Amino acid sequence: MKTFSIASPTRQKSWGLFPVALFCIVGMGTGLYLINSILIVVSGGLNNFYKQPFQFGVIACATIVCGFALIVFDVGRPRRAISVLFGLKRAWISREIVSLLLFLSCVILDHLSGFVHWRFLSIAAALMLLFSQGSIIFQCQGISAWKNPLTIPLFISSGLLSGFGYAVFLNMLFPFFGDGAVFFTGAITIALNLAGVFLFLSNHHDAEIYKASAVLRKPVFVILNIGFALLFPLVLLFLLHLDSAIISSLLARNITLISIAFTTLSGGVILKVSIILVAGYKRTLYFTQVG
Amino acid sequence: MNQIPQGRRIVEKTFKKDGSLTRLFIPTSCMQCRNAPCLKVCPTSATQKSEDGIIYIDHQRCIGCHACILACPYDARAMIGSDALTNGSGNDCDPTPDTVRIGLSTKCDLCFKRIREGQRKGLIPGVHDDATPLCICHCLADALTIYDRDDPDNGFFEIIERKKAVCIRGDLGTEPSIYYING
Question: pLDDT tens digits for A114-132?
Fold first, then answer.
């Protein structure tokens, strides 16, 4: 029973620019790898699965490594990083690092050996990496909004969203997938995120969590997270798919694709920034009766 | 407030009671939770739990990832910043200056090393000063005390019940070990 209020919630300052960049960039790289695998299957069926464009895998790995490299600037003793493997039993940060090592190893072995089994393992490791990132946030009991059970699925789906934007960019540079596959994969990814954001914001099973995420229900964040990042690219995808007269020229098509890529890529980033920084308020402290 | 080391916090509350203003000082340092969230998130096992249930930090293992700070619902942890005290924090009788621990996590560990040293000499925490946390020894108002909750004869549970003790955010399932009683 709540009796006497001691401290009001204050915004967390422990994880700032570098950790947020890590979450966003690693999510983007991992999402790219997963979306790329989906695009391959959508565009050519399961038989096409072994024909993964080499560039996508390499770029995904490079992006993820760059993301992790940023954290060196934030942790107090980066030289002791090897000791994170000691916390594997309980800490999701340790599991995240193991997933990273597993993912990188499997991608390298996949490209070197050509065995499709490595592809399945690397996909599992990529999913584990995204899951670990969501769990790291969810495990922080000091921040009310992060204890939303939908944090983990939302981190996975926002990673896929960023990865989709990244894949569309790369597909313009190294054309590999057709518009049909891009439309189908994009529509599914956006639909997943729409459902995730809606459920995250409307989850009112815990009054404290619901109140903590109130800031994300403000019009400006709804416009950014739903309108700009999800609905706008969805409309563009439909226009692209329907071969609308509005985008009949090559220039208009390229502008549309760049817009889709930019909005979805930044959409995943905005969503994570919103959760980690904007809604990152500490707990209200109050006395409760013992027993 | 009087150069309190980082990670130790005293909340000052002012409120009206019976028409007059009342000031209340509430120490909200580490709650020494029996189900400590900080223990679960530490990737290097730098945060540890002693046999007595005291949560302490092994600074040789800490990498300063901030995860424990965000895991603590009581905001009882902090990073040792560049404004750290230069002659030891005084929290755990460790002569190492805080300046060499800049960038690492810190919190109240109930003077863990002091208690352990005292117990080695056969002293009892809460009874003998040399085995008792420094804040308890030096509290001018004698407002702080320490009990061994595993000792059924020290009257701990009786006091909790009789004085209608409260704790901070007992609803979170962290099972805090710090209790507050009125008078």
Answer: 788 888 999 999 999 999 9
Q: What is the band of A233 on the pLDDT scale with cuts at 50, 70, 90?
A: very high
Question: Number of A:B CB contacts under 8 A?
Answer: 142
- As a whole number of angstroms, the distance between CA A64 and CA B140 comes to 55
- Does residue A243 carry a pLDDT above 80? no
**Chain B closest-CA separation from residue A137 CA (Å):** 9
Give the SS3 label for residue B3: coil
d(CA B30, CA A63): 39
Q: Tell me which residue in B64, B74, B170 faces A290 most closely, judged by beta carbons.
A: B170
The per-residue DSSP string of B148-166 comes to -TT-TTS-HHHHHHHTT-E
Q: How far apart are the first and last CA of chain A?
A: 10
* B43:A93 CB<8 A: yes
Dig out the tokens for B45 from the structure: 């096992």
Task: State which H helix or E strand residue B49 sits in.
Answer: strand B47-49
Alpha-carbon torsion (B49, B53, B56, B60), positive or negative: negative
Question: Touching check for A81 and chain B: CB below 8 Å?
Answer: yes
Does residue A14 belong to the interface with chain B, where contact is any CB pair within 8 Å? yes
Q: Which of B71, B103, B172 sits opposite A139 (nearest CB)?
A: B71
**A6 to chain B: which residues are within 8 Å by CB?**
11, 13, 26, 28, 168
Q: What is the pTM of this model?
A: 0.91
Query: What ipTM is given for this predicted complex?
Result: 0.90
Identify the helix (H) or strand (E) that includes residue B168.
strand B166-168
Token pair recorded at residue A247: 């985008």
